[in-house]
Amino acid sequence: MPLDQSPLPGLLAGRYAIEREIGRGAMATVYLARDLRHERPVAVKVLRPELARLLGSERFLREIRIAASLQHPHVLPLYDSGEAEGFLYYVMPFIAGSTLRARLLQERRLPVGEALGIARDTADALAHAHEAGIVHRDIKPENILLEAGHAVVADFGIARAIGAASVGGTAGLPIGTPGYMSPEQLTAQENIDGRSDVYSLGCVLYEMLAGELPTTSHAQAADAGRRTPTRLPSLRLTRPDAPRWLEPVLARALAEAPVERYPDAQAFAA
Length: 270
Prior knowledge:
The protein has 270 residues and is α+β, with helices and mostly antiparallel strands. It has helices at residues 8-11, 49-55, 57-67, 100-107, 112-131, 156-167, 183-186, 194-210, 218-223, 246-253, 265-269; strands at residues 16-24, 28-35, 40-47, 80-84, 87-93, 98-99, 144-147, 150-153. The strands form two sheets. Strands 1-2-3-5-4 form a five-stranded antiparallel β-sheet. Helix 3 (57-67) packs across helix 6 and helix 5 runs antiparallel to helix 8 (194-210). The longest helix has 20 residues, at 112-131. It is globular and about 55 Å long.
């Protein structure tokens, strides 16, 4: 629904002045708004109506409150959340920089040092969240923001709410993005832990360096009609400037079985 036909600006009037849409995805629409109380630009993320109905306001607000407790330099903080006549929303700082996806669309492949720095920042954020019992479940370039030369991870809140709903037995909830999903996500296994995020970050790091997702991706293998993924192609064929130690690191992060991966995001970063 176009913004000028939506009741949302009126529902949030007095607290947030919605200015324009700045992004749209499978789970939510993002608006640039002004926080009228603090006179600052913010991003208001509004869940799609069908997802809001599946989650329910009580579960959404409870779980996003837990995610809001994350305090880390590489985690995008949550300012606020709420429900307004069926609309479920949460509010984040507006980052004037760009997403990693936008950067990859411009350059396709990043310098090795920069790619490693982004991966380390992201892994640090994930390690902090995992210690708090929060698994992101949707690590991808769209959810990694670039600000002042550092990476900031967004959307821990919605991932937490969706994860809780799925564990509770609610069917039909989209979790993860094909191409970045771990094998256990694709097969909808229960008890997914931080090693799933390690797999997804491995996909992102490979993409930053090679300009494409690894063909070990189980989602890509399924799309191609293969029962099992192919072996990880040599990174040095496309990036001869990549250090030799990086290939076994990526191979371990992208292992099919969680037990064969790094035990946690901090070990991957190290």
